[in-house]
Amino acid sequence: MSIGVIGAGAFGTALAVALARGGANIWFWGRSDGQIAQIRECGENAQYLPGVQLPDSITPTADLANLAGVKALLLALPAQQSDAFLATHHSKLPRAPLVLCAKGIDAKYFATQTDIACRHCALPLAVLTCPGFANEIARGLPAALVLACEDSGLGAKLQTLLTTDRLRLYLSNDPTGAQLGGALKNVVAIAAGIAIGAGLGESARAGVVTRGFAEMRRLGVALGGQAETFTGLSGLGDLMLTCASDQSRNFAAGLALGRGGSLPAGKTQEGVATARAAVELGAKFDIEMPIAAAVAAVLDMTLTIEGALASLLARPLKPNEA
Predict the structure, then answer these.
(1) Can you give the pTM of this predicted structure?
(2) Are strands 25-29 and 58-61 parallel, antiparallel or unpaired?
(3) Within a domain: 64
(4) How far apart, in whole angstroms, are the C-alpha atoms of residue 89 and residue 81?
(5) What is the CATH number of the domain that holds 160?
(6) Does residue 321 sit within a domain?
(7) Whether residue 305 is found in the same domain as residue 209
(8) Model confidence over 173-184: pLDDT tens digits?
(9) Are residues 199 and 280 in the same domain?
(10) Which residue, of 24, 59, 154, 238, is most buried by count of CB atoms within 10 Å of its CB?
(11) For the segment 1-33, what is each residue's pLDDT rounded down to a tens digit?
(12) Active site residues
């Protein structure tokens, strides 16, 4: 059984390691010969996931032709790179189900990853998302994931293929909601990090997370997601994890901003681009997104953190918290 993993970042590496330990043969694609040579030489991805040895059943490659014959193809590139990759390489991909693993809304088209994939290829699509940190998954710690697919038959096959003794997959028929939960929680995580970094306290973080969740669900339902999806692993579960630990790149980014610093260099924070996309989508669908708007304004330096806080606290009072 062979599985292809495209994207040699931290999460792609973690998935490759976990699935290889589960018994699969993994073709592990990286964008450059230099990166692949380093991985082969060291037996680990020292740049993105140092200290995790790759099982022998993982074969690093920079040639997509080597992925011919895989049973599934996991696309684990950063969300803002998916469109360019698929536009360039879609004709080279094997005829296998494409499982989209990035958590972000495309900043150019304000589109989900499935929307981006449909622009370029006609492969069967599914979404894999979870509350899980790459280093924990790679170390073999247990994690619960969501596999979202409109085709229930395909979903069941992929669930069996990708489940291991350490990765438990739950099926969903709501790819839209699963993607939006995974993407929008990153924006809330930046806001939570800002609150803690700025010394606003745990009560402020609780308020940000709770009201951020309300924004996520409002926008997600407006875009076609199911309300109940946002109370599951790909929504509330992922939100809890990402807003509570500095292992989260998005929370760590907010923490740095709250302390008066800048975004950590060399790390992908999907919530940065997604905050701006969420504000645009909120305006398009007439959905209030005050926390996303505050995050976007702080990132764009059109508001200070103090100004963003003042704008949130000055919002009109409401009769209920819906």
Answers:
(1) 0.95
(2) parallel
(3) yes
(4) 12
(5) 3.40.50.720
(6) no
(7) yes
(8) 999 999 999 999
(9) yes
(10) 238
(11) 899 999 999 999 999 999 999 999 999 999 888
(12) 185
